[in-house]
Write a structure and sequence with these properties.
Number of helices: 2
Oligomer: single chain
Number of strands: 0
Distance between the termini: 8 Å
Structural class: mainly alpha
Largest sheet: none
Strand content: under 5%
Length: 62
């Protein structure tokens, strides 16, 4: 799949990928530190969602 992105779009895409990567890592840390099972699961699911979005966004760079 070929995408034709200009420099501004590429920069914005990289920033979005970075933001989702950071969110994923933070949410993983929160999940590891959490003792409440419901919150732990919520953080784990949110972390996975951020990881999935990051991967989908990264696919546009290929």
């Amino acid at each position: 799949m070929t995408h034709h992105l200009n420099q501004m779009e590429l920069q914005n895409l990289r920033e979005l990928i970075s933001a989702h990567d950071t969110a994923c890592k933070k949410l993983e840390t929160y999940a590891q530190q959490c003792t409440d099972p419901e919150f732990k699961q919520m953080f784990q699911q949110s972390s996975q969602s951020a990881r999935n979005t990051k991967q989908k966004l990264a696919s546009f760079l290929q």
